[in-house]
Structure formats: C-alpha cells, structure tokens
Prior knowledge:
Elements: E1 2-6, H1 10-21, E2 25-29, H2 33-42, E3 44-49, E4 52-57, E5 60-62, H3 65-69, E6 74-77, H4 84-91, E7 100-103, H5 109-119, E8 127-131, E9 136-142, E10 145-151, E11 155-160, H6 165-175, E12 179-184, H7 185-189, H8 194-204, H9 206-211, H10 224-243, H11 254-258, H12 268-274, H13 287-290, H14 292-307, H15 312-325, H16 346-355
Parallel strand pairs: 1-2, 1-6, 2-5, 3-10, 6-7, 7-8, 11-12
Antiparallel strand pairs: 3-4, 8-11, 9-10
Helix pairs in contact: 4-5, 8-10, 8-14, 10-14, 14-15
Amino acid sequence: MKIAILGGGHGAYAAAADLSENGHEVRLWRRDAQALKPVQQLGSIVLKDAKGAREVPIALATSDIAAALRGAELILLPTPATAQHDIAALMAPHLVDGQVVFLAPGTFGSYVMARQVQATGNRADIAWAETGTLPYLARKHAEREVNLTIRAVRLPTGVYPERLSSRAIEVIRRAYPSVHGCGDALSGALMNAGPIIHPPLMVMNAAPLQHFERWDIHNEGTQRAVRDVTDRLDQERIAIRTALGHGAPHYPLADHYNNDQWMYGDAHKKLVKSGDWRETIDLYAHRYITEDVELGLAFLASAARFAGVDAPLTHGILAVVGGFLGRDLRAGARTLESLGLATLTPTELKQRLHDGA
C-alpha cells in the first residue's frame, strides 16, 4: 500500500521505518528540508528494536507535500496536535476522494482538520480517523536513527465522518492490524491517553523538572500519589465517555501500569528500562503542556461540561497549569465551545459526527 507519513518526529521516523520494513511504499514528508537531508542522501532510516539495528530503505523522503500525498491510500500523521492546523493547510490542495487520514493520536483533530480542509473549498470525500496513542513508544537517537521500544497491540480508532468508518478501518488495518473501530471522532478523541497521563506527571513533578537538568517522569516521577491522581482523572474521562453513549472497552490507563491489557500491552517496565524518557523538559513549552493540557485537557473539560459530568480533577489540573502559564485555559482552541459544537444537543452532535458537513 502507498502510505504518506507527515512529520519529522520520533513517531514519524518510527512509522516510516516500520511500515517500509513491512512491505509498504512509504513517502516520508518533512517540512524542514535541511533536517531531512540525511534520510534523502542515504535513502534509509536506521531502525533499532529488540531484533537489533538495521538499515531500512524508504521509497521517498521529500519536503514536497504534493509528492508525498500523490496516490497515497493512507496518510499517517504521528504529529503533535499543535502542528495539525499548519499541516491541514498544506494538505488541502492535494487531497482527493477515497483517501484515509490517520491521526495518531488526534485530540479531536479528525473533526478540526476535516472542517479546515473543507473551508478551503476541497469537497473530496475523505475519511479522517484518530486513535488513542502513537502506534509506537519510540525515540530518535540520531538524525536518521530511531529506537523503537514497543509497538501498540490495541489501537481504538474513531472516524469522521462515521459513515466512512468501515472503509477507513479496513485501510488502516492493512498497515496496523491492531486497529479496531470505536465509533465516531468524539469517541476516538476521548481515547487519547496523553491528556490523562501527562498533565498529572507535569504538574506533580513541576519542582524536580525545573530543578534537575534531566528527569524521568515515568520512573522516579511516577509515585503512588501521582498514580492515584492519574487513575481518578482517567475515571472522569471514562465517566464522560459513558455519559455521551460511548461503550466499553474504555482502555483504563491503570492497565498501562498493572497488566498487559492496555494499548501497548505490558509497556511501562520497558519504557522505564529504555532510559529514553530521561530528558530535559521545559515546563512551559513541552508538548505535554502545549498539546496535552492546552488542547487535550481543555477539550476533555469541555466534553465534561457538555455531558454534565462532574470532573474536578480535569478542571483543577487545567487551572493549575493556567496558573503557571499565566492565562485562562478554559477557552482553548480545541474546546467544544470554540468549535461551535457546544450549542448542539447530544443527538444533533452525534448526527453531525456521523454524516459530516
């Protein structure tokens, strides 16, 4: 299958190497042409995992997004939600009927990007899908070298418009057999693990993050009190999903720590053992804040308001982060209110997400 991968981060390089090794024709697009040169010049990415390190040829590495998208059946965006607006604008002139765009994860970006592309006048019938996490736990070790710690074994995925769900899931599963449908785009967005796991880790590790040069929030930063807050925050997410009519499985984050039933299977010990997450984190600019709090947690809070669910931790953590950022995060760009959806009834919202615009 011809697959376009848009992005230049850990997930994009992991996907490019992994999917190429699995026999797909991968076109890797990165807007930073200079940073892409090492892959272009050698035509490959070094993939490291439990099998060792090896060179994996890539069909095309390009900074020309039209070339990457041309003929692609699947378009994968393993990029932060903060990049979605710019990428949607670049994609819009080149998307055609039948293509499937897969956001991993999405933060309701499937709906947001679809509407942005439509606003440019592109009326192509495109399926926009999003899942709850990246298909990989991975970190780049060099300009064209990526270390893949673990692959996801379960990827619940919502689709906008939901009427295209069957086709979208069939296409995505040819690349990622671990994908399964979980309903509409709102259901997919409420599977996003980032706004659950990362905000408590950032807030409750704020002092060591600012004090130490490098700190592993997943190792010594994950203590009992942090876990308790994370579990209760996740219970609010599940209550919101339930109130909005989205059924199980909800993939409770506790399974990430306690057993092998979560999206990555038994991953936490491998994540910590890798050492790849001992890093310098800027508390004000890291994507765990800009993506998972300012967009993701604000979105979750708006969904709680819409569903009439009491979510004190969601609103409280959002307020604390707003406190050190110095602004009110309740009126974020990714809330149901800002997207013009909060005035709909639950039935009207469900219909909108099923039919599309």
